[in-house]
Amino acid sequence: MGNLRPAAFTAVELTGDFWRERLETVLTRTIPSQHRKLAEQGILESLTIQHPPPPLRIPRNPQGFTAQIFWDSDVGKWIEAAGYALAHRRDPKIEAQVDAMAQALERAQLPNGYLNCWHIARCPEERWTNLRDSHELYCAGHLLEGAIAYYQATGRRQLLDVMERYVDHITDTFGTGEQQKRGYPGHQEIELALIELYRLTDDRRRLDLAEYFINERGRGPHYFDAEAKARGEDLHAPSADRYEYCQAHQPVREQTEVVGHAVRALYMYAAMADLATELRDEGLRRACEVLWKNVTETRMYVTGGFGPSAHNEGFTADYDLPNDTAYAETCASVAMVFWAWRMLHLDLDSRYADVLERALYNGALSGLSHDGEHYFYDNKLESDGSHQRWAWHDCPCCTMNVSRLVASVAGYFYSTSDDGVAVHLYGGSRARLRVGEHEVTITENSDYPWSGFITLHVDVAEPTDLSLKLRIPGWARSAGAKVNGSRIDVAADTQHGYLEVRRRWQRGDRVELELPMPPRRVYAHPSVRADRGRVALCRGPLVYCFEQVDNPTAPVSLIRMSRDAPVDVAPRADLLGGVVTLASEGSVLQTSDWGRDLYRAEPPRVAQVKLTAVPYYAWCNRGPNPMQTWIAEQ
Amino acid sequence: MGNLRPAAFTAVELTGDFWRERLETVLTRTIPSQHRKLAEQGILESLTIQHPPPPLRIPRNPQGFTAQIFWDSDVGKWIEAAGYALAHRRDPKIEAQVDAMAQALERAQLPNGYLNCWHIARCPEERWTNLRDSHELYCAGHLLEGAIAYYQATGRRQLLDVMERYVDHITDTFGTGEQQKRGYPGHQEIELALIELYRLTDDRRRLDLAEYFINERGRGPHYFDAEAKARGEDLHAPSADRYEYCQAHQPVREQTEVVGHAVRALYMYAAMADLATELRDEGLRRACEVLWKNVTETRMYVTGGFGPSAHNEGFTADYDLPNDTAYAETCASVAMVFWAWRMLHLDLDSRYADVLERALYNGALSGLSHDGEHYFYDNKLESDGSHQRWAWHDCPCCTMNVSRLVASVAGYFYSTSDDGVAVHLYGGSRARLRVGEHEVTITENSDYPWSGFITLHVDVAEPTDLSLKLRIPGWARSAGAKVNGSRIDVAADTQHGYLEVRRRWQRGDRVELELPMPPRRVYAHPSVRADRGRVALCRGPLVYCFEQVDNPTAPVSLIRMSRDAPVDVAPRADLLGGVVTLASEGSVLQTSDWGRDLYRAEPPRVAQVKLTAVPYYAWCNRGPNPMQTWIAEQ
User: Fold this and answer.
1) Of A435, A609, B347, B568, which has the fewest beta carbons less than 10 angstroms from its beta carbon?
2) Does A231 map to a domain?
3) pTM of this prediction?
4) Which of B300, B533, B558 sits opposite A598 (nearest CB)?
5) Across the A/B interface, how many CB contacts are shorter than 8 Å?
6) What range does the domain containing A368 cover?
7) What is the pLDDT of residues B302-323, one digit of tens each?
């Protein structure tokens, strides 16, 4: 199945309950409330260049947020989320809001195409003098992605035109030419946007610029050193130590370990995978594969969270995955969805989709509250009750990263090649796809992720030879399938985690897929110190957790499960918009008989207790309360 | 047994192997090597006032240590350790070194008695302007304690005279009089020294000054605020928040929770207990009892370590006792020995001696290496192999705190009252005591802490009615005892953990005490998160740990013990100067069959393994290597 390409988000309609609910929430609650927050925080106003600019601390802002150099990126991500959402249902009010932003940005743009509102308003002379910290290219990338998504959803191209002029300016400014700066972004992002723009416009210069940024990164003499020196800064530590944070410590093809700021890292790896696909660049592909192994084999939370440390918002050491202090930024899980998606298109293997799904349903989705207006920035796997969702943040990056992901999730369901279709995600969808010369409509019905019973109808205008590849998730043991009611041999026909049904399809053909979803225990590699002697409960793609609110008789930090206690599936239509809970019996350490002893010779007594677990993504929607994902095993 | 008083360290000779070895090491290795370090670091030189003073970073010092405002205290502690050690064996070289320091200090002393070498050399105009941070009173306290110990050991009083003049100056300077400053030390210590001086000289003004410092502490308006304002500093946080660090957030009698810097806190509580004894002050006694409960019931490591956090070098929250990041400064365990000793003299109860012994044999003793020339500042209960002993430190407080404790340990064995003797520690000793009108010599023979078989000979010139109180440690179950070969009823005759043998003693009377020492498992209160599902091994007063070097076939972080595996006692004369090790069978989590999985459905396999534990105090004497004190229980 060569030359696999994602099916556009505009080609796929989501019909299942799970994603429809999230999508509706994003469209009707999240995007409008985020627009209000952008206004409150002064971000919208910052698009209109004023002299003098508003003060850094916006006095009338009741929460006292400060102005941030990366505000343009927040605007870009909001527009991008809006664009994806509008593809599902147009909304004149949201469109008017985007159009107003586009107009402001067009007015702000300098005659040479430069467009960074912070720099134009506050320090135009400092343009392109501090790529390491200034976020100019990062902001450009997000605005460009917003412009592309909005154009794709609505056909309106004012912002896209503005951004293409800006990209022209960036193309002139950076590169290996004598008059050019040999710089690259301190916070990677624009590479992904440029590749998107190339795919939209077929303008090769966009791909070349992305390639330049990736290949130039981390080379010596170090550009960030040179520009720091030009600014008169002292340089203390060797470049390599200093630049691990932004993965510029060595040329990207030589990098073998995931280090530094997790979001920067994962955006970069995603761009590397895109370039490996577009350029058939084996060096980049190999670098991606080495980095993929490092992160997924030693540095990934069971929730698909990444970057355990708040200190660098990023990666630390192999197997260092603390639960209570997990940073696991929402943005990093979103970024992993991007990277995994691109690896999947380099090499159709369900292990990439497994990680995508893990991050999507757990570490990323947990970032958005049930009401669609509260967020997690860091996604801890254990809480003493002090961790809670917030309504906004000085750095609101995660808020619009999770909304743009949810709004675009239809884009992760299908891919097409010249001779077939690959289905990666389930949950109710209708896709109108072009495969070679053929129009194919696939209608997938399921209650996924709550149930693994999936039916696909394949509609073609006339009998057509096609390969249909259906992902068998890594967690699914003994999957079954039927074509038009006849059982097929799943094990025999599955390669790299995709069940291939290759046949001459006719209108009305039906495939039934059964992915059994018993609750399952998951264990971490013993080198993960925080999880030793512990077990996590999962079902289907979902990781579960124990919230105090569901377990009123036992402090969740003191509960234990025995290795063989049955775990029951208990759907709860009334809870959190309808979820499947898991119920079991466990025990709880007793403290009541300890008196004043801090230490004693008798082990703690235990009492039996009924336990209830909820999906991890859904936790902390009933107020902050203690939570455990990894449970001690008796 | 009213009016219990410690028997002077000069009255007790240590004859048992355990403490003799430590004492010899301190006398022949630690004290001489510390003197060399004091010279290398520039500390000795700092006693000779030079204009201009040497630079803050001493260029010729190969380790690059910086000058410290509290250097006088290091000199004081070294002299104090030397004083105690010299009581065991005089040493002309060490005495000449002390005398040279005394001369330098006498020359440095200002005509009004003031004596702080840092301030005299560098900033005489800043004297007594920043009690919060300047450590002047702390340094004075340590120099005074050194002067007292040296005088007691040698009868030489040059330094004592110097320090009494300085104390006179301090007495004039601080107090409630109109011309006086209402200040008190930012780092408590001098209170203990003043009470010692009072006990030596019977000069009531010394006790009054200690009482003033304790009673004034934390009162409003806050003295540290006033002096900060006088220095022109901005004050941001409320005083209470700011001053918890040094326990000056409220008057000491109102304090109910152990907070802040652990060494400051424990020195202060020790002084409060001393004052409660000397002044029969019930308010201070009650405050001590409340604080004692708080710390021993919720904030004490099983090793008798205190203060889990490096951030404030101190206390955090109830049950917050992490093992791998434990700070548990050596000085804090030493300070707890001081406090527990004073609580024991307020109220003869073995629970105080139990904590004393716990801190002494574990958290404090671990601070000094087997070779006597390396140290732990922080005493972690778990290490991945990166924690190691160091030869010296920018802040060498712990080095001389542990040496002064070891050198003075004879002073913790006996107390006397008007009608009897209490024996608190065992391990081979000969004490010549005065009880009322009688001379009593007690000879105690044992191989404690390796064995609980203890024989005491009581020698009196003529038949004498005396109460002999023998401590029965809290860990000792079913202790037995005989008097002149006849078994006595230990349970019936034991009150508050002391077995009383009250009789008319005759020359040659013999008491045999048996404290059974089976290895025992210890469990922590389930609220101690780090120890849940874990067990510690102890024997007698010693806590044990598993060092990698003794367990070559299993990573100690992955070992587990079953609840019922036998634990054998295995003496090893060849190891670490002769220790008793513990041997058992356990299991170890296997990693070899995990391949590249970070998570999987099958629990980790385990393999059986032989385990060896060594006394905690003795760990990390064979190079840095992984260590676990709390072991997972299967």
Assistant:
1) B568
2) no
3) 0.93
4) B300
5) 93
6) 256-412
7) 999 999 999 999 999 999 999 9
